[in-house]
Amino acid sequence: MTPSSFWRNFSIGAPAIRRGDGGTIAYWPLRGPDAKPKVGFVDDVVLDQDMSYTRLKFRTRFTGPTVIPAGFTLFMDGAQDRTVYAAHVFDKETVVAAHCVEPGEGGLWNAKKTMRVGMLPLALRVPSFRSRHRDEAGAICGSIRVLLQASGIRRHNGSLRALIEAPHIRSGVPGLTAPDTLPDQRGVVVTLNGAVVGVEIAPSAAQFRAWWTRGGLNESYATEVARLFKPPALAASSGETLADHLFAAALRLRPTNGPVLDLELGGLVGQAVMLGDEVMYASAVGERL
After folding, report:
1. What is the pLDDT of residues 26-50, one digit of tens each?
2. Which of 115, 102, 95, 6 has its CA nearest to residue 49?
3. How far apart are CA 231 and CA 288, in angstroms?
4. What are the residues facing 192 on neighbouring strands?
5. Once rounded to an integer, what is the mean pLDDT over residues 95-108?
6. Where are the domains of the chain?
7. What is the Cβ-side half-sphere exposure of residue 55, based on CA atoms within 13 angstroms?
8. Confidence class for position 71, pLDDT limits 50, 70, 90
9. Residue 154 banded pLDDT, cuts 50, 70, 90
10. Residue 161 phi, psi (nearest 5)
11. Are 97 and 257 in contact (CB under 8 A)?
12. How far is residue 15 from each of residues 67, 102, 194, 264, measured CA to CA in Å?
C-alpha cells in the first residue's frame, strides 16, 4: 500500500497547543469520514475471564469484528494489572496474551473486583510492541522501572500504577490538559517540540472520542509531557509541513495476524487493522526510552 492510498480519507486540522516547562505539545486532529464497514472498539470490549497471569479472555458487545488496540491495559484492584501488547481483531470472544505491568501484586481478577481501562504510557509502547511475540509475564517490567526513574519517581515497587497514580500525573500539569475532540476527528497526531511522537486512528469519530476520553489514550501522552525526548525521525512546525512529512513518509505494512498488520511509518512503529483497503485502526509511536 502506498502512503497516498493509506491517507486518502484523512486531513490534518489546526492543532491544540499546550506549553509548559517540559516544552510544547501539540495535538493535531486527524479528520475524516467514519470507516466502513462498522467494527467494535474499546467500549465494546469486555473482560470475561482472567484465565492465568499471561492470558485474558475477552468478549464483545458488538455484533461483528471488534478491534483491541495495542497497549490496551486493565488496572484491576486486588489483582495483577495486565496489558495487551499487540492489536487483535475478533468475533464474539477471544483469548489473548496479556502481560504483567504490576510485578508487586498477585491474584487474578473476578467479577467482584473493580477495574478500569487504560493505555500504556507512550514510552512503554515501543518496548511492548517489540515484546509482542514473547510469551512471558514480565517482559516490559525492566522498561517500567526505567520509565519510573526517568519520571522522577524514586519510591516504587516497579508497578506502572506508581506512575499513573503519581500526584503530578493525577492532578495534571497546568496548561497541558488534553483538548476536546472534534465531531469528525478519527484520530490524532501528537508532536512535542515540533517532533512527531505518535499517530493514532480509530474506526470512527465516536470511537476515537471514547478511546481518547474513557479509554486512556490521552493519559498515554499526558504521562510524557514533562520529560525530555530524543529527536524522532519525523518533524514538523506547521499543519501544512506536518501533512507533507506524514503523508509522504515511508510506510510499510507487513501481515502478522489476519487483518492485523505491523506498521512502520517513518521512524514510528506500531500496528494497523485493514479491512479491504479501508484503514480501521492504526497506532504508531516513536521510541522514548
Report:
1. 899 999 999 999 999 999 999 999 9
2. 95
3. 9
4. 25, 195
5. 87
6. 3-285
7. 6
8. very high
9. confident
10. -60, -30
11. no
12. 27, 35, 12, 24
pTM of the entire predicted model: 0.88
Q: Which residue has the cell 512546525?
A: 237
Q: How far apart are CA 253 and CA 261, in angstroms?
A: 6
Angle between the N-to-C axes of helices 122-130 and 141-150, in degrees from 0 to 180, rounded to the nearest 10: 160
C-alpha cell at 127: 518496548
Give the pLDDT score at 233.
Answer: 45
pLDDT tens for 217-275 read 988 887 766 454 333 445 555 666 788 888 888 899 999 888 999 999 988 999 999 98
